[in-house]
C-alpha cells in the first residue's frame, strides 16, 4: 500500500531568478510557474539471494530532481538519490515502511510510503495472476503475491528476449509481445533467502481485434448541413444496404454490425472490397467534406470511393487513407479531392472501400457523413441576455400575456443570478447557455426553495445547435437541456411534468435594429411564456 501526501515547500533558485534577455525572452517564467509537485512516485526493491538482507532501492517519479529515501529501520539520515540512481541498505529480517520524499525543481515535495518485507525464508503460498490487457493489444500483465517475498522477476518467453521484467511483490509486471500466440511464462519470486520460488504457465497471448472505445463524437450540426450515411449522431439516409455483396463474400470477406456497449458500427472483415448501397441517390454538391472514422488492428490502407449512380469502373475515383493500428482514425476529406479528379458528386448512390493488403485487414467504420460549414445566421448571431426590466418574463393564456405572472422590478433584483445568464448564438450554428457559477433554480430541479444556485444538469450549458428560420420567425434549439428564457418551458409542457426534450422551437420577433428579441413559446395547451432578450 502507498500513502501519498503533497508538501508545498519553498526554495530560492538563484539560476531561475536571473532575468533572461535572450532574443524574444524577457523574464518569462510561465513554464516554471506551471510546474507542480512530483507525481507517480514509487520505489522498486531488488533483494540479493544470499541471506545478507541487502536491498537495493531504486526510486522513480515524474518532475523530480532528487529523492530522499528513509529506510524505515531507525536509520535517521536519509539517502539522497538523483533520478536514475539507487541506494542499497542491509536490513535485518522484518517488515518495514520505506518513505520516499521526491522534490521538484520548485521545491515542491511529494511523500510516498511503501511496505518492504525482508525475510531469509524462501517465499511461500505463491499466487500468480496472468491476464491479457483489456486495452492494449498483445500486452500481458502478471501479478504475484507470496509470504516472505520482496520482489519477483517475469520471463515472458518470447524468443530472442531473455531479459526479465521485475516488480515488487503485490505489484504488476507487464510486457507487450510482437506476435500473439501461446508462450511459456516463468515467474521467479525472491526473498532474502538463497532459495527462490518459481511458477510457470503456458499462456495464450491475444491481440485486440476490435475497438474498446467509441469513435470520437461528431459535433452538433444543423440538419441542413449534413448528409449522413451511417452513424448515430445524425439522421441517416433511409434504406441503405451496408453489405450489398458484389461478389466479395466468395473471397472470404464478410461484414457485421459490431455493438460496443450499445454503440453500433460497421465491421468489414478481411477487407478486399466492400460497399454500401445508399438508400436513395444523394446530391452532395453543396457539401464541403466527407467525414469517416475507421479503426483497425492492422496498419493497412483503405481506398475510399464515393460512387455516382450507374458509374462504370473506368470512371471511379478514390482517396487513399493509411490507418494507424489500434486507434480510431478520423478523416475529414475535402470533396475537392474527388471533384478535382473529375468525379461528379450530385448523384451519389454507393460507397466502395478497398483494403491493402488485399483481404487481410479488418476494419470498423462509424460516422460516415458529408457536411458543410454552417452559414451565418442573419441578424441573430451574437450574445443575448434577458432584459433586466419588469415584464421581461411573463406567462398567460395567450401570446404576450402576463395575466398569470409578470416579473417585477424587485424580482429582477432578487434574481440577479438569472438576469446575468447569457444565450450565445454562434455564426457556425452552435448555441450555448452560459450560466456562470450560479443561476436561478426552482424546486422541481431538486432544491428546497427557489433561489440562486449552481446549474443543475442537464440545464447546465451542454453543447447545442440552432436553426433560425427568419421567414417563419422561429428558432429551433437542438440539444437536451438547452433553452431560451426558462429551462422548464418546452413545446410539450413544463418540466417536470414532461420529459426533457431533445429540441425546442420558439417563435421569435427581432426589432428593426436586431438588438431586441421577443420570444414566445406555448408550453403545452394554452400556456404561453414570453421573454424579452437584448443583445449585449
Describe the protein in words.
This protein is mostly beta strands. The chain contains five helices and 39 strands. The strands form nine sheets. Strands 26-29-30-33-34-37-38-39 form an eight-stranded antiparallel beta barrel. Strands 16, 17, 18, 20, 23 and 25 form a six-stranded antiparallel beta sheet that branches. It is flat, with a radius of gyration of 33 Å. Residues 1-31 have low confidence and may be disordered.
How do the helices and strands line up, and which of them pair or pack?
Layout: E1 3-7, H1 14-17, H2 30-34, E2 39-47, E3 54-62, E4 66-70, E5 79-81, E6 87-90, E7 94-103, E8 109-118, E9 124-132, E10 139-147, E11 151-155, E12 165-168, E13 172-176, E14 181-190, E15 197-205, E16 226-230, E17 254-260, E18 263-269, E19 273-282, E20 289-296, E21 301-308, E22 319-322, E23 328-334, H3 336-339, E24 348-356, E25 363-371, E26 382-386, E27 393-396, E28 405-406, H4 409-414, H5 416-419, E29 422-425, E30 430-434, E31 439-441, E32 451-453, E33 464-469, E34 474-478, E35 489-490, E36 493-494, E37 503-510, E38 516-522, E39 528-535
Antiparallel strand pairs: 1-8, 2-3, 3-6, 4-5, 4-7, 7-8, 9-10, 10-13, 11-12, 11-14, 14-15, 16-25, 17-18, 18-25, 19-24, 20-23, 20-25, 21-22, 21-24, 26-29, 26-39, 27-28, 27-39, 29-30, 30-33, 31-32, 33-34, 34-37, 35-36, 37-38, 38-39
Amino acid at each position: 500500500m502507498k500513502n501519498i501526501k503533497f508538501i508545498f515547500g519553498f526554495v530560492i533558485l538563484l539560476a531561475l531568478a536571473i532575468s533572461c534577455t535572450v532574443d524574444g525572452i524577457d523574464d518569462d517564467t510561465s513554464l516554471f510557474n506551471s510546474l507542480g509537485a512530483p507525481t507517480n512516485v514509487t520505489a522498486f526493491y531488488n533483494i540479493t539471494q544470499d541471506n545478507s538482507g541487502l536491498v537495493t532501492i531504486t526510486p522513480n517519479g515524474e518532475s523530480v530532481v532528487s529523492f530522499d529515501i528513509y529506510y524505515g529501520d531507525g536509520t535517521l539520515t536519509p539517502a539522497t538519490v538523483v533520478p536514475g540512481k539507487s541506494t542499497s541498505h542491509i536490513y535485518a529480517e522484518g517488515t518495514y515502511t520505506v518513505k520516499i520524499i521526491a522534490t521538484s525543481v520548485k521545491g515542491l515535495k511529494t511523500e510516498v510510503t511503501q511496505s518492504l518485507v525482508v525475510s531469509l525464508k524462501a517465499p511461500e503460498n505463491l499466487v500468480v495472476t496472468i491476464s491479457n490487457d483489456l486495452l492494449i493489444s498483445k500486452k500481458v500483465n502478471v501479478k504475484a503475491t507470496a509470504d516472505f517475498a520482496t520482489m519477483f522477476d517475469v520471463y515472458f518467453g518470447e524468443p530472442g528476449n531473455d531479459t526479465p521484467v521485475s516488480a515488487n511483490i503485490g505489484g504488476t509486471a507487464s510486457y507487450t509481445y510482437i506476435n500473439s500466440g501461446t508462450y511459456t511464462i516463468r515467474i521467479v519470486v525472491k526473498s532474502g533467502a538463497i532459495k527462490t520460488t518459481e511458477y510457470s504457465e503456458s499462456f495464450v497471448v491475444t491481440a485486440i481485434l476490435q475497438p474498446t472505445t467509441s469513435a470520437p463524437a461528431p459535433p452538433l450540426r444543423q440538419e441542413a448541413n449534413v448528409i449522413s450515411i451511417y452513424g448515430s449522431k445524425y439522421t441517416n439516409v433511409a434504406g441503405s444496404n451496408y453489405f450489398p455483396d458484389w461478389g466479395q463474400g466468395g473471397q472470404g470477406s464478410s461484414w457485421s454490425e459490431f455493438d460496443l456497449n450499445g454503440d453500433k458500427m460497421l465491421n468489414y472483415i478481411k477487407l478486399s472490397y466492400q460497399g454500401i448501397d445508399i438508400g436513395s441517390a444523394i446530391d452532395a454538391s453543396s457539401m464541403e467534406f466527407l467525414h469517416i472514422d475507421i479503426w483497425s488492428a492492422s496498419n493497412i490502407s483503405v481506398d475510399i470511393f464515393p460512387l455516382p449512380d450507374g458509374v462504370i469502373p473506368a470512371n471511379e475515383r478514390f482517396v487513399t487513407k493509411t490507418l494507424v493500428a489500434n486507434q480510431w482514425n478520423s478523416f475529414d476529406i475535402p470533396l475537392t479531392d474527388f471533384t478535382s479528379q473529375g468525379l461528379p458528386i450530385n448523384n451519389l448512390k454507393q460507397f466502395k472501400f478497398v483494403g491493402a493488403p488485399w483481404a487481410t485487414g479488418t476494419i470498423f467504420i462509424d460516422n460516415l457523413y458529408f457536411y458543410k460549414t454552417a452559414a451565418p445566421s442573419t441578424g441573430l448571431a451574437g450574445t443575448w441576455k434577458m432584459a433586466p426590466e419588469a415584464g421581461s418574463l411573463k406567462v398567460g393564456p395567450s401570446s404576450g400575456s402576463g395575466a398569470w405572472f409578470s416579473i417585477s422590478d424587485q424580482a429582477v433584483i432578487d434574481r440577479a443570478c438569472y438576469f446575468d445568464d447569457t444565450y450565445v448564438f454562434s455564426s457556425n450554428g452552435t448555441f450555448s447557455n452560459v450560466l456562470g457559477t450560479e443561476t436561478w433554480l426552482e424546486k422541481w430541479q431538486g432544491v428546497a426553495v427557489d433561489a440562486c444556485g449552481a446549474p443543475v444538469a442537464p440545464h447546465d450549458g451542454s453543447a447545442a445547435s440552432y436553426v433560425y428560420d427568419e421567414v417563419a420567425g422561429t428558432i429551433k434549439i437542438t440539444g437536451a437541456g438547452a433553452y431560451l428564457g426558462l429551462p422548464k418551458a418546452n413545446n410539450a409542457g413544463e418540466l417536470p411534468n414532461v420529459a426533457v426534450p431533445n429540441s425546442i422551437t420558439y417563435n421569435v420577433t427581432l426589432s428593426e435594429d436586431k438588438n431586441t428579441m421577443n420570444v414566445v413559446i406555448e408550453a403545452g395547451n394554452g400556456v404561453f411564456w414570453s421573454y424579452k432578450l437584448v443583445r449585449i
